[in-house]
Every structure is written in structure tokens, then in C-alpha cells.
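Purpose: get a first structural picture of the assembly so the mutagenesis plan has something to point at.
Setup: seven entries, given in the order below. No constraints added.
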Amino acid sequence: MSVNIKPLADRVLVKPAAAEEKTASGIIIPDTAKEKPQRGEVVAVGNGKKDEPLTVKVGDTVLYGKYAGTEITVDGSDYLIMRESDVFAIL
Amino acid sequence: MSVNIKPLADRVLVKPAAAEEKTASGIIIPDTAKEKPQRGEVVAVGNGKKDEPLTVKVGDTVLYGKYAGTEITVDGSDYLIMRESDVFAIL
Amino acid sequence: MSVNIKPLADRVLVKPAAAEEKTASGIIIPDTAKEKPQRGEVVAVGNGKKDEPLTVKVGDTVLYGKYAGTEITVDGSDYLIMRESDVFAIL
Amino acid sequence: MSVNIKPLADRVLVKPAAAEEKTASGIIIPDTAKEKPQRGEVVAVGNGKKDEPLTVKVGDTVLYGKYAGTEITVDGSDYLIMRESDVFAIL
Amino acid sequence: MSVNIKPLADRVLVKPAAAEEKTASGIIIPDTAKEKPQRGEVVAVGNGKKDEPLTVKVGDTVLYGKYAGTEITVDGSDYLIMRESDVFAIL
Amino acid sequence: MSVNIKPLADRVLVKPAAAEEKTASGIIIPDTAKEKPQRGEVVAVGNGKKDEPLTVKVGDTVLYGKYAGTEITVDGSDYLIMRESDVFAIL
Amino acid sequence: MSVNIKPLADRVLVKPAAAEEKTASGIIIPDTAKEKPQRGEVVAVGNGKKDEPLTVKVGDTVLYGKYAGTEITVDGSDYLIMRESDVFAIL
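Result (C-alpha cells, whole complex):
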């Protein structure tokens, strides 16, 4: 996965993981009821802030809060751009 | 207990202790009335912030506020991910 | 008095003083009407923050605001855990 | 006037001046209508914050805002404990 | 004009200029409709904060916001005590 | 244009440009409907804050937000006094 | 594209990209329903803040939040002036 975007400062660009189409019991959920994924792959990172380089790297799978970041669409794909401080952990 | 998660910066991953199934007087409480536990075991820690390493270590039993952290599910288990400043004390 | 708890950073653990059972005029107050004590004994202290060691020591009797701290129960006893900045004065 | 209290950090203990019992025109005001005094005598001071010693000294008469500080009772007398930044001026 | 008050830190004591009794067209305004003056003379100044001495001096005529400061009465005269940052300019 | 006012710290005094009396299509707008100008000339500047001299100079034409600053009247003329951070750009 | 404006400090001047006149399915949208563009070209930049030069350069195509910046009109063209921290990424 490669995108031609350079996030600024402490921002990272994340490709959210596809939401599960089925519940644990096998029932197919219509599109609007699907929970937003909170897991994604980092596809681009900024240069960090002065004296604070980023920890997250391109390719990392990260966990983030349900309402983290701003949705942007690049070349027809949906991404989230968020500050690294919105990232909880690397899987 | 071992999980493959690396919390970022000053965050720690906590496995909440199981809530008591019985009250002191021996009455069994149905699941929805159980108080959320405020005690847990640290299972992963971040690297701290610049110039501020973490005090809490993996394996510590910690006390934290009732509404501290964000619930995340990893491999079917529930954890809380919180900032170390949400941890009150080590038991 | 000794408890096996290590408060983090600038937090202190306080054992609130027992509330007075009688008013000045000698009337016995039922339990629910008793004012919460604002005086207590320090039973454990954290290591302070970077470059800011704590002033309060174990054994000090302290005054604190009516709504300071979080109540926690350890071995059946009730304590308050609060930041040192919530402590007004040492008696 | 002497009290056995040590305020913490940048806090000062003030003995509010008695409110005037009469208005300028000589009418005696019942107790509940008296304005709270905003003038008092400093009876104890903290050690200040790191690199910021206090300016106010024990014995100073100070002016402070109407809602400054917290009321505490020590040995039957009422005092106000406030931060030095709540003190406007020394008379 | 001289008052025996020492403002603390970055505070200044200002004697508000008397409000104009007449509008430009010469109509006399009753007392309650007069706009509060926003111009006054500095009568006492604090020592400034650490590393930040004050710019305003006793005797300066200053402009300040309509709601700046706290009114205090000293020896029967009304003053405003405000932080220097509430002063806009020196005339 | 010259005024005898010295703004404090990071404040600048701006003479707002006269609002356009006509719309692009030539209709004359009555006084109350005129948009407030967001362009003005700097007529006085402060000395800046510690270690942060001002960028704006007397004589600069500046753009600022619609609600920036406080209106003050000096010698019958209306000015705006604002912080330099309320100035967007120099024309 | 060249404009004679010098943004102050950490501000950048952006020429928003023209909004798409047609939806993906080819339906022409009337003017008021068009989404505001979130993509634009940088036409002028400030000098940055003390010790923090800007990353964005004139000519960069940038992404920014839907509500970022303030609209200003210069020589009949509409621009947005925003802080660099409102810019998410460079395309």
C-alpha cells in the first residue's frame, strides 16, 4: 500500500481495517450498522515535532480511539489522518 | 499473561481484575449490577515520554479511577488502555 | 498505621479522621448526616514529580478540601488518594 | 495571633477582619446581611513554589477577592486558606 | 495622589478617571446611565513576576477594558486593582 | 497619522479602513448595514513580549479577523487595539 | 499565482481548489449544495514562530479541515488564511 501524501508534524495517515461483515453468531449486518473499525495500518507519517520524532512507522498496525482523526479520501480510498497522540498502541 | 501489544508513550495496558461475584453478605449479584473493577494487572507499558520514563512495570497490580482508560479487545480478552497518570497507586 | 500501597508521582494516601459523632450542643447525629471529615493522616506518599519532591510525609496530619481525592478501600478500610496539591496545610 | 498550621507551597492562612457592624449612616445591620470582609491578617504562609518564594509575610494585612480561598476552622476560629495569587495587595 | 497599598506581583492599582457628566451634545446624564470610565491613573504597582518587571509606572494614564480588574475601596476612594495584562496602552 | 498612545507588550493600535460605501453593483448601503472593515493601518505598536519582538510596524496595512480587538476612541477618532496574534497578514 | 500578502508567524495563505461541479454519477449540483473544498494551493507563507520554521512552501498542494482558516478576499479572489497546524498533509 502506497500513497503520495506527506502528513505534517506529528500526524499519521491510517488505512482503517475493513469492518467485520458478520457478527460472532454469523448474522450478516447491513452496512450502516457496522461499527467503525478502530484498527488500521499506518501508510504515511509526518516528521514529528521539534525534538519529538514519531514512534509509529509505515506498516505498523495500530489501535486508536473510535472518534480519532479526520476522514480524507485520496484516489477513491478512505483514510484517517490523526495525531500520533491519538494512537493508543502498536499491535 | 502475555499480550503482543506495545502501548505508545505514557500509556499502559491493564487487565482488569474480575469483579466479585458475591457481596460481603453472600448474595449473588446478577451481571449487570456488578461494579466495574478498579484494580488490575499491568500487562504492557509504553516507553514513557521524553525525559519521563514510566514508574509502573509489567506485572504490577494497580489501582485506577472508575472511568479511567479506553476498553479494547485483543484476542477475545478485554483490556483497558490508559495513561500512567490515570493510575493512582501500585499495590 | 501501615498500608502496602505505593501512590504514584505526586499522590498521597490519606486516612480520613473519624467524623465527630456529636454536635457542639451534644445532639447525636445519625450516620448519614455527618459531615465528611476534612482532616486526615497521611499513610503513604508517592515519589513526587520530576524535580518536585513531596513536602508531605507519612504520619503528617493534613487538611484538605471537602471534595478532594478519590475514595479507595484497601483491606476493608477506607482511604482517600489525592494529589499533594489538594492538601491545603499540615497541622 | 499564632496558629499551629503550616500551609503548603504557595498557600497562605488569613484571619479575616471582623465585618463592620454599622453602615456609614450608623444603621446596625443584622448578622446575615453583613458583607463578607475582604481584608485580613496573614497568620501563616507556605514555603512557596520551586523558584518562587512568597512575597506575603506573617502579620501583613492583605486584600483579597470576595470569593477567594476556602474556609477552615482551627481551634474554634475561622480562617481562610488561599493561594498567594488570590491576594491582591498588601496594605 | 498617594495610597499606602502594595499590589502583588503583576498587579497595578488604578484610580479611574471621573466619567463625563455630559454627552457630546450637552445633555446631562443621570448617574446610573454613565458609562464606566476606561481610563485611569496608575497609583501603585507590584514588583512584577519572576523575570518580568512591569512596564507601567505610577503616574501613567492607562487605557483598560470595560470589565478589567476588581473594585476596591481604600480610605473612602474607589480604585481598580488589575493585572498589567489587562492594561491595553499608556496614553 | 500620529497618535500619542503606547500599546503594551504585544498589542498594536490599528486605524480601521473606511468601509466601502457602495456595493460592487453600485447600490449605496445605509450606515448600519455596512460590514465592519477587516483591513486597517497600524498607527502604534508595543515593545513585544520577552524574547518576542513584534513583526508588524507602524504604517503597515494589515488584515485581521472580524471580531479582533477592542474599540477605543482617542481624540475623537476610533481605533482598534489588538494583540499581534490577531493580525493575519500584512498587505 | 502570486499575491502581495505576507502572512504573519505560522500562518499560510491557501487558494482553495475549485469544488467539483459534478458528482461521481454525473449529476450537476447547484451551487449552494457544493461541498467546500478541503484541498488547495499554498500561495504565501509566514516566517514561522520563534525556533519553529514552517514546513509548508509556496506551491504545495495541501489538505486541511473543512472548517480551517478564515476567508479573505484579495483583488477579487477568495483565499483562506490558516495556521500551519490546521494543515493536515502535503499531497
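Chain E has one domain: 11-90.
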